[in-house]
Amino acid sequence: MAFGGGGLRQDGGIWWVLPAVTTVGPKPQTKKLKTTNTDSTKIEEHLITRGFMSNYTCWSRHGEILLDQNTSFSDLNNETDWNDDHENVSDMLHDCEDNVPEKEYYDEFQQLFDESEKPLYTGCTKFTKLSVVLKLFNIKATNGWSDTSFTSLLKIVHEMLPEDNELPVSLYQAKKLICPMGLEIERIHACPNDCMLYRNQHADLDKCIICGTSRYKRKAQMEEENIIATKKGPTAKLLWYFPIIPRLKRLFANAKDAKLLRWHAERKIDDKIRHVADSPQWRNINNDFEEFGQEIRNIRFELSSDGFNPFGSLSSRHSTWPVLLCIYNLPPWLCMKRKYIMMSLLIQGPKQPGNDIDVYLAPLIDDMKILWNSGVEVYDAYIGHNFQLRAMIFCTISDFPAYGNLSGYGTKGKKACPICEDDTHSLWLKNCKKTVYMGHRRFLPHKHRYRREKKVFNGRIKKKKARKPLNGEILFSRLENLNIVFGKVKGKSRSVTNSIWKKRSIFWDLPYWKHLQVRHCLDIMHIEKNVCESLLGLLLNLKGKSKDGANVRRDMVAMGIRPELAPVENVGKRKYLPPACYTMSKDEKTKFCQCLHTMKVPSGYSANIKKLVSMNDLKLVGMKSHDCHVLLTHMIPIAIRGILPDRIRHTITKLCLFFNMIHSKVISH
Fold first, then answer.
1. Which helix (H) or strand (E) holds 645?
2. Is 62 left (phi over 0), alpha (psi -120 to 50) or beta?
3. Judging by beta carbons within 10 Å of its beta carbon (0-12, 13-18, 19+), is residue 432 exposed, middle or buried?
4. % of the chain at pLDDT higher than 90
5. Omega within 30 of 0 (cis) for the link into 563
6. Which DSSP letter does residue 634 get?
7. Distance between CA atoms of residues 149 and 462, nearest Å
8. Total number of domains constituting the chain
9. Mean pLDDT, range 659-663, rounded to an integer
C-alpha cells in the first residue's frame, strides 16, 4: 500500500525512482538505476542546489530548508539563522504598543523598549537582552520544559556568558521582563455549587445568595474551641476569563494578521462551498444586518467547549471546561490553527458545569453584547487608520452531550432530537433497556423506495413526512418566559414549565441569536469515532463493543424484523446466535486485521496503524479520533474487499464515502 508523490530513495548505494502514486493497491514496479558512489553524490548535490523540479514550492514550515541556487553541498551543515521574520522583536513590540493603557504599565512598557535595544553583553551586536529571553521562552513552550529546568538553564547560560551579561537568572525575572507584552486576565470567584459568580453587584459578598455556601475554603475548626474563622482563605472555585477585546486589538495591530482577517471578502467565489463564508447563513446575516455585513473586518466567531482531564489518569473524574473561540474570517487553513484560537474561559473542576455553564458564560456574553451593539474602536495596521470593530458568535460546535448544555435542550430520553422535539419518533427496547429512534424514513423523499419497504424495516410503510425545523423567532417565543435557578444544590427545585427544554440558554440574550438558521453544530470527529468503533465492534464481534447480541436479537423479533436471526435457546447449553450477513469467521477476521496491520502511511498522516492492531486478540486498541477518521474514510473499505458479500461491502463503503465527502475541502452545492 502506498501514498504520496514521486521522488528518489537511496538504498544500499542504489537510487530508486519512485513514481507518483495516488491510488491504493500493490506496490508499483520500480526501475533500478545502478550508479557509483561518485554519481550518487553528484545527484544529491544537484537535487539540493537546483531543486527537485522547476517551479517547485519549498515548504519551509514543514521541515524543508530554503537554499539559494548558488548554495553548495558543503553548506548544508550551517546553522539556521535565529533572526527569522516571525521572531522579529520590534514587530512584536509594535503589535502590543497600541494595547497598553496610557498610564497603567506605561513606565514598564518604556523600559521594555530600552531592554529591546540593550545588548546582551558589552560588545554583542547580534542579540539583545529581550530577544534572547523571548527565544528561550519560545523553546521552553515548544518543548514543554518545566519551570525548574528553565531556571537551571538560565543559570548555566548566565555563567557561560561574560560577567557583564544582562541575562536573567530565574524564571521570575524573565517573566517580569516581558510582562508588559502580556494580555489581561480576570480571575473571577464562583460559587462551588455553580450558582453564581462574584462579579458586578455581587463582587463583595462572602456567601452565595442562592445556596449560602461560603465563597472561600475555610479550615475546619475544633468544635470544642468554638473558634470563629476570621481569615478568608483561598477561593472555593475560580473562573479564569481572558477578555477577547484586547486580543482582537492585538490581532489588528499586526498588519499581516489584519490582512488575513479580510480574506473571506477578497477570495475567489464560485458555485462551490470552500469556506464558511459560502454558507447560506453567512449571506443571510449580511442581508438581515446590512450595517454589520458591509464592514468586511467585522468578526464572526465559532464557540466550542468540552470537558477534559488536565491530570491524565491521576484523577479520572476531574473535568475542566475550556471555552474556545475560532475566527471564521480567516482562510480555512488558518481557522483552526492554535495561533488564532482564543481561549476565552477556563472553568475550573473537579465537577463539570453541566446545565449551569450559563453562569460562567456571562462575562463572555457581556463582551459579545458590546461588540455587537456599539463595537470598539480598533487600529487597523494594514490600512493604517482606526475603525469601529463589531463581532458576533456565528454558531457553536460541540459533541451531543455538550450540545444539550449549551442549547438548554434535554438530549436524553424519548424526545432527544432538538430538531424534531415533540415529533421525535422513539421506541423503548424491553430487552436492551434502551431508547432507539426508528423513524428516519420520514426524512426521505416522498417517492423513495425505502418508504415502501416492509421486510427490512419494521414491517410498515412510512407515509408520514418530517416536520420542518422551527425558526428562531418561534423557538424564542417558547423559551422567552422559561427561567430556572442555577446551581447544584439538593432540595432546590427548578421552575421549569417545559419538560423538553431545561433552560433558556444565555445565547438568547444576544440580539441576533433568534435570526440564525443554524445555532448549534455537532463535532463530526466525535460522531466519526463513535461510528468507527461501533462498526469495528460489529464486524470483529468485540465483547462489550458489538451492537449485536442476544437481547438485540430478541427485540428485533418483537418488532418483526429478521425473525430468522432469533437466538436459539438450548436447554443446558449456551444460547446460539445464527450468523448474520455481516458475521465474519475467524479466518476472515484474521485477513481483515492482517490487512490493517501491514498498511504503511506517510509520517504525520495518522498513527502507526500496526501498533493499533492486536493480531492475538483480533481487535484494534488505543484508537484516537484522528485514527478513527483515517480508518473510516480510507482503510476499512479496502480491508473488507474480498471478505464480506458485495451487498454488505457496498453498504459499508457508501457509509465511509459519506464521511469522506463531508470532510472534503471543496463541496459542490
1. none
2. alpha
3. middle
4. 24
5. no
6. I
7. 67
8. 3
9. 87
70 vs 613, residue with greater confidence: 613
112 and 69 fall within a common domain = no
Are residues 391 and 372 in contact, defined by beta-carbon separation less than 8 angstroms?
Answer: yes
Which residues contact residue 58 at a Cβ distance below 8 angstroms, ignoring those fewer than 6 apart?
Answer: 51, 64, 66
Q: DSSP H helical segments within 144-279, as ranges?
A: 147-160, 171-178, 244-252, 255-260, 263-266
Domain, as residue range, for 625: 525-541+584-668
Q: pLDDT tens across 41-78, in order? A: 788 777 776 666 666 666 665 556 555 444 443 443 43
Which pLDDT score, from 0 to 100, does residue 89 have? 56
Residue 53 is classified by DSSP as S
* Helix spans in 545-631 (H): 550-558, 586-597, 609-612, 625-630
- Which tens digit of pLDDT belongs to each residue from 334-383? 988 888 999 999 998 888 898 899 999 999 999 999 999 999 999 898 88
Q: Are residues 142 and 184 in contact, defined by beta-carbon separation less than 8 angstroms?
A: no
Q: Quick one: 93 and 168 in the same domain? A: yes
Residue 221 Cα distances to 215, 224, 232, 234, angstroms: 17, 9, 13, 16
Contact indicator for 215, 206 with CB cutoff of 8 Å: yes
Q: Residue 520 carries which DSSP code?
A: E
Q: What is the pTM of this model?
A: 0.76
Q: Provide the pLDDT for residue 15.
A: 37
**Residue 639 is inside which H or E element, if any?**
helix 636-639
Contact 221, 289 (CB under 8 A): no
Q: Is the pLDDT of residue 119 over 80?
A: yes
Segment 247-262, tens digit of pLDDT: 998 889 888 899 999 9
**What integer is the mean pLDDT of 608-626?**
88
SS3 501: strand
The CB-side HSE value for 448 (13 A sphere, CA atoms) comes to 13
Q: For residues 7 and 19, what is the distance between their CA atoms, to the nearest angstrom?
A: 7
Q: How far apart are CA 409 and CA 415, in angstroms?
A: 10
The DSSP bridge pattern shows strands 391-398 and 520-522 to be: parallel
Closest listed residue to residue 336, CA positions, set 525, 137, 73: 525
Residue 643 lies in a domain: yes
Is the confidence at residue 1, as pLDDT, over 50? Answer: no
| Interatomic CA distance for residues 196 and 541, integer angstroms | 48
Residue 409 DSSP code: B
If asked whether residues 588 and 664 sit together in one domain, one would say: yes
Q: For residues 99 and 250, is the Cβ–Cβ distance under 8 A?
A: yes
Assess if residue 346 is contained within a domain. no
